[in-house]
Amino acid sequence: MSELPEPTDPSAHGLDAGRLRRAGDYLGHYIDDGSLAGWQLVVAKDDVVVWHECRGLADMAAGAPVRPDTLWRLYSMTKPVTAVAAMMLYEDGAYALDDPVDRWLPEFGSPRVYRFGPPQAPGTAPSPEPITVRHLLTHTAGLSYGFHHVHPVDALYRAAEEEHDWADADLAARCERWASIPLLYVPGTGWTYSVASDVLGRLVEVASGQRLDEFFAQRIFEPLGMTDTGFWADGERATRLAAVYGRGPADGTLARDDAATAHGTKPPAFLSGGGGLVGSAADYHRFTQFLVRGGALDGARLLGPRTVDLIFRNHLPGGNSYAALQPQPLSWPPAPGLGFGLGLAVVADPAAAGTVASAGTGFWSGALNTEFFVDPADSLTAMFFTQLTPYGALPLQRELAQLVCSARTAQR
Question: What's the CATH number for 85-208?
């Protein structure tokens, strides 16, 4: 298993140890008041870990503490990994960003756009624009998720998920079904958090000739030394997987979510590039370090520095925030000042976003309230892991950047 390096004195790297301790104490109150069972926090600066802290329990019933080698369900923190895989193929010359994806996924060759009507009988029209690779990377393809519950198209995704064979459907079969659902809008004209990263994972499979788990293992995890990351945890690794908690219906106290806890303990039929990975903080630290160091780590170069720079730029039409491009009603919380790069959100305007994170900082979250950010300009990364449902029950995305970035003792 990979291990986190011992923390270095933060003051030698422009961070105040007292303020980082304050960050841990602040996040610790979520354990004290019963909001979280336990968590893990890692901060790195200038290529070294400067703060690492574990608090609370990974499994309350067993009394098992969160440890440095605890495993976490990453859910949507899988998306940047899939984006890196796609950009590795881009560097291989497999496609251009604005190539239509139906060259590889012909099921998306004749997309139709929702215009009116109920889910049972939607009125649609042919899309004047194809779905491109860039649209998948930026969630501007017009695809959706069933859990949004704000648009008639969302109901069509839920209907697909309720089909008797859905649980056993693999990535290829799900893409076939998603391709038959109308788009929310003409590709490139809006932003909606969606299954786009899963479709991107299928593109990686077809363009590379490998299953997604094989591509990840051979071309990303092995070179980066991410020995604890994969689409499931079995054997000894399964014993290190943290339990999932939610609010009990009776008194609001933490209650174990057995169904969610079972997720990630056996090989899935569906290799989800949008949310399927399980991994350790040590592994995801190596992934963030590969990004912040411009595409290479410990002699292994996966991407060129110019490609990494491209990942962290705002690719949304007109330089807009993703808040401005969401169709009404909103399917995702409004976020002025935040754009979207290739596989992750980016801070486009810190003042508008109300954040002390640098412009160009990339970040995203997982469904169980895991968080991370990468600030390439300041060589600063931070990760926070817990296993709480539902997402957004606590403002952890905002707080992680607020607490860590305010520990800086210099502008750069």
Answer: 3.40.710.10
